[in-house]
């Protein structure tokens, strides 16, 4: 992320990367494939077989299930290094400059990022990367519901289904889906891993 962010002092540091790694290995996650439903959801949207630009890729949890030629970008150098250590292709925003091109990717994924940003910065972030997605390409936006939002002190703005639709509309996207996953919407108040999922397309024909 290349613009000013209110949570930069936490999410851009090595300690935040370590927190992501620790969380990935804690509790039931050590014994059960808890990410499997979320990876299934990404594949069901089509991200498993196409070139995806994963904005805010972190340590590569979602990037790992995207198609060949996919690239992650994150403002935390430690997270980028962790993703690379997993054999993934990831860059900081500055490193990505000059490596991408207009229409290079088939899709854009922005998962659990917008809740870390102000409305203005979130809109600007999306606008800055959309030119790298081909016309007709897919855009997937994912944010946590109430329990998930409350679980992380670096979250600064609750972005629900209507807010995702508004962000996408300002970006000129054409909506395909807007739903709650993996459980019904009301569950998000107690189940921290329930998500808002928006999918739309970039105008034009690829």
TrEMBL record:
InterPro entries to which the protein is assigned, alphabetical: SAM-dependent_MTases_sf (IPR029063)
CDD domains attached to this UniProt entry: AdoMet_MTases (cd02440)
GO-annotated biological processes: methylation
Presence of keyword Transferase: yes
Keywords of the record: Methyltransferase, S-adenosyl-L-methionine, Transferase
GO molecular function: methyltransferase activity
Protein name stated in the entry: Methyltransferase type 11
Provenance organism: Mangrovactinospora gilvigrisea
